[in-house]
Amino acid sequence: MSAVKNVIKDNYNMMLLKDYLREAIKDAGFSHAEISKTPVGTKIALHVTRPGIVIGRKGSGIRALTDKLATDFGLKNPQISVVEIEKPELAPSVMCNRMASHLERGTAFRRATMWTLKQIMEGGAMGVQITISGKLRGDRSAFEKHTQGILPRAGHHAEIIVDEDIAHVKTAMGLIGVRIRIAKKEKLIPEFEMRTEKAMKTKQTKEDKIKVEEIEIEGSKIEVVKVKGKKDDAKSESERIALESKKMETLETLEEEEAKLK
Questions:
Q1: pLDDT for the residue numbered 232
Q2: Which pLDDT value is given to residue 213?
Q3: Residue 173 and residue 109 share a domain
Q4: pTM score, two decimals?
Q5: At 107, which CATH number?
Q6: For 230-246, how does the pLDDT look when each residue is reduced to its tens digit (9 = 90+)?
Q7: Residue 53, SS3?
Q8: Nearby residues of 14 by Cβ (< 8 Å), 6 or more positions away
Q9: How far is Cα 220 from Cα 56, in angstroms, rounded to an integer?
Q10: 29-33 contacts, C-beta under 8 A, 24 or more apart
Q11: Are 178 and 99 in contact (CB under 8 A)?
Q12: Residues 130 and 222 in one domain
């Protein structure tokens, strides 16, 4: 039983750690963390949309985060590396956090859902399904599912192709849950390749896609992986949410289309 208890304790601590990272570096567009234990210490790879926010000015952010993980979570000699996400629109955790932020700002849930669907499909997804549940309109709890594109729902291939994540947001009406499932074209096996795809694909090497940098802060090296040629007007996730809210006002919902037809 001791081995079982140790496994449960480790999983519980990892859950607390990921919940803390999701909230602490939310403005950096946190997606997920890869944690592995080595004889030297604990390696932690943080996948974010904006590495500069995690590192901070002159490494102040990364030092504070390292001390926090060592003292509060008991990680032995944490070694943090920051990886920039190549396509944030295809990361379910990033899109869940963005949609939750829109709902917190008071955006109508259907408008936020349609905008998120549009962003994911334009980002190159094969298919997407967004499920939103809670007190959406009245006192009774309800849920809605919105699907676009091709999304395998069951079987071995669905486990390989589809990624999903869940986020919860507190609103004036109550707690609302958001679940996003994204099917990625890159994970398609050759036997199920889509006909619309070209037979001859141009392959890009990793050197063309990413650029690896090492920043030395007080004798310790921090590895940062950045995407080449990526441009984003927003400096943080909060600024991006504010810009998207303005663009979202031009998006017509189903209720507005029905009102025009009447």
A1: 62
A2: 55
A3: yes
A4: 0.75
A5: 3.30.1140.32
A6: 556 667 777 778 878 87
A7: helix
A8: 35
A9: 15
A10: 29/85, 29/88, 29/94, 29/97, 29/237, 30/93, 30/94, 30/97, 31/85, 31/88, 31/91, 31/93, 31/94, 32/93
A11: yes
A12: no
pLDDT at 66: 87
The CA-based diameter of the chain, rounded to the nearest angstrom, is 69
Per the structure, the complete domain to which residue 115 belongs is given by 88-197+240-261
Main-chain phi, psi angles of 39, to 5 degrees: -60, -30
Query: Strand, coil or helix: what is 236?
Result: coil
Domain count, the chain: 2
Q: Which long-range contacts (CB under 8 A, 24 or more apart) does 43-47 make?
A: 43/79, 43/81, 44/69, 44/75, 44/78, 44/79, 44/80, 44/81, 45/80, 45/81, 45/82, 45/83, 46/21, 46/80, 46/81, 46/82, 46/83, 47/83, 47/84, 47/85, 47/91
Q: What letters, b where the CB count within 10 A reaches 16 and e where it falls short, cover 226-238?
A: eeeeeeeeeebbe
Least confident range of 40-49, 94-103, 171-180, 182-191 = 182-191
Q: Is residue 206 part of a domain?
A: no
Rounded to the nearest integer, the mean pLDDT of the chain is 79
Domain assignment present for residue 187? The answer is yes
Is the CB of residue 162 less than 8 Å from the CB of residue 185?
no
CA 132 vs. chain centroid, Å, equals: 17
Q: Residue 229: its pLDDT value, please?
A: 55
Is the pLDDT at 55 greater than 80? The verdict is yes
For residues 22, 24, 30, 33, the Cα torsion angle rounded to the nearest 10 degrees is -70
Sheet with 162-170: strands ordered across: 142-149, 125-134, 175-184, 162-170
What's the CA gap between 155 and 133, in Å, rounded? Answer: 25
